[in-house]
Amino acid sequence: QVQLVESGGGLVQAGGSLRLSCAASGRTFSNSDMGWFRQAPGKEREFVATISWNGRSTYYADSVKGRFTISRDNAKNTVYLQMNSVKPEDTAVYYCARGWGPRSDNYDTWGQGTQVTVSS
Fold it and tell me: Hey, is 104 helix, strand or coil?
């Protein structure tokens, strides 16, 4: 069973950058597709990005395309979310999860989340 722990969140100014990490435990990480979601206060959890088990395929929400990059290092059991040109509307708790695609019900394991706050 994979366990996921996010880190790297914090306070950043609009236009700045932040890199989130998601460390996974368990022997199945390298065979697992992974994704990032986020949830802002008072809003539903929304899809951000997903990456295939081998890193060859990625898919992004339109709202972050061209600004965020998902990547992974299977040797380190870690998936990353590089966030560039951040906007106040990117403020949310960010979660990594195991699965593929934009639907949250395609994911079976979730981390606890890391808070990202973008100041204007």
Answer: helix
